[in-house]
């Protein structure tokens, strides 16, 4: 027998906290389709823009790589359109508010740039618009709340898919969009906050009608005895815990524990959402959406595991690591990871490392500082720059990381190295490399800023550009590496690698290295590379804006400025690049970091 509103004790309230009474399901599905279509269009636009940019850079590199080396590249110094510098200054590179972008906000962590903020604003406003597109002309407020409940629940589940896609390190879409993982994590957090908001509103809309009909005791009874409501409540609480534990002060207090708890809570949300929809008694379209999001997440974990196994193990053995505590006043370790096969690793990448002698249940991301390829011990043939496929199969790769001892794992790692006589050898796993989407080989002028261990991101860019210049595969004619450290002892981190770069042909004429030491009195350090005019040590804080103005005054072709370091340095370099846009020159900016 069909149930009608007359069967409820209060027919103007009762039906609207159960089932699909008052829920406009066709409109819900239509808005989800519009929402996903708009995201697809946005992604397609971003990919198309990146393809166009790649074609421009490829054309520029091809034109300049074989050009006379004394060429000033003046034709490339200015952008194609005169309004582009203004767009970069006021939108693309601008922080959301005044100056701060990379410096962490106490509640929200790293803030989006103005451009990313605009995208997030579109994302949030579209969700708000879909939520509020309900029949407010209905005089029954409980029917309106029922429609609102259905809409918010549907949108929360629909957002699961982009939420999961943004967290994937092996996602080809974000790769084609050239989104760094740092950016993806930031977007993931904001999308997650929208999901939590919609889930909270979904629960409130249900509870408001239920309380009006049967009171709070009935709500408590349903949570305890009604499996459909129980599943929804557990998912609701799990989302609340996720957003609470994701606050920067809580997350930073114990990041390793946060990651594990976050994953467990996310799995709980997926499972309870699926159970909640299954027990509704209706064939809801939400069910395949949840399964699709869960499958995407599972596929990501499988791909990560496959990458780890592929690069860590081979018939020649398995990966191992040597961990050294670097001498000096800086608490820093050098991890040298020996992989059993050749792995091609682009500059600006990072990898996840697991050390069997130090919390083997944890894996941590570190920026890759240096990479070397060599033949395995069984092969005695000399290594050539260009190797055949058969030779490549006999090669192995050594990957080096510089790890500053902060707290948690990195501090424990440093202490372990000290206790082991400054170094120890252990089994290891390698998962990566990730990111490294950017190539600087089409720029005539490159300025690399690094703060402390941020040098790991910049060092291989410098080497690649010098090697590319000699091989006529890069357009670079002037490279400036600016490194800011507290103590000169930090030179020990990279001394052998920097010496290798400066010994490359044409490096002294092409590359300028400026090291700023901020916490030592001026003195004359004894260093192997100080005799070169291309290397300078200054015992002062750098004037970032002044340094960049000087480079812009002598700009050679298109310029790219990149930074990797503390948030304060990144924000200073961003501000200097924005100010330099007033020159009308073609100046690009890239920021690298771990804000997660």
UniProtKB/TrEMBL annotation:
Pfam families: FAD_binding_8, Ferric_reduct, NAD_binding_6
Transmembrane segments: 34-56, 115-133, 153-169, 190-208, 228-247, 254-275
Keywords: Electron transport, Ion transport, Membrane, Oxidoreductase, Transmembrane, Transmembrane helix, Transport
Signal peptide stretch: none
Keyword Transferase tagged: no
InterPro entries named in the record: FAD-bd_8, FAD-bd_FR_type, Fe3_Rdtase_TM_dom, Fe_red_NAD-bd_6, Ferric/Cupric_Reductase, FNR_nucleotide-bd
CDD domains: NOX_Duox_like_FAD_NADP (cd06186)
Domain of life: Eukaryota
GO biological process, one term: intracellular iron ion homeostasis
Sequence ranges assigned to domain FAD-binding FR-type in this UniProt record: 306-440
Keyword Membrane assigned: yes
GO molecular function: ferric-chelate reductase activity
Family that this chain belongs to: Belongs to the ferric reductase (FRE) family.
UniProt cross-references to PANTHER family, sorted A to Z: FERRIC/CUPRIC REDUCTASE TRANSMEMBRANE COMPONENT, PUTATIVE (AFU_ORTHOLOGUE AFUA_1G14340)-RELATED
Descriptive protein name: Ferric reductase transmembrane component 3-like protein 1
Species of provenance: Colletotrichum musicola
